Amino acid sequence: MTDKQREMLTKYLGEGWHELSGSFEEGTLNCSCGAKWDKYCDCRSGHENRTFTTPADLHALACKMVKRGKWHNFYSYVWKALIKEVEDESQILAVLITNPARTCRLIAEWM
What we know:
- The model has no long low-confidence stretch (mean pLDDT about 85).
- By secondary structure, the protein is mainly α.
- The two termini are about 15 Å apart.
- It contains five helices and three strands, in the order αβββαααα.
- The relative contact order is 0.17.
- It has one domain (about 5-110).
């Protein structure tokens, strides 16, 4: 998954995308959210972007999609791609929930 896709999914969740600029060598590291650190304080906790590789990331996306009424459309899209990989269609949901990174990537491609 590309950074652009991760940024898009992050914003879809209503969360801020963190982009760092500057460097400690220059004296200050800046985040796009407005946070700043100097070379003596590397306390960037909370300023990491989601990786969209974890079950928690997938859960957050799925909940947001259900809330917005988009899950059914995504499932119809992904069904066409995954039906070729499974023995019967009842396995599609298992494929989606057991590989969060792939499913998040499929969501990004669908969007």
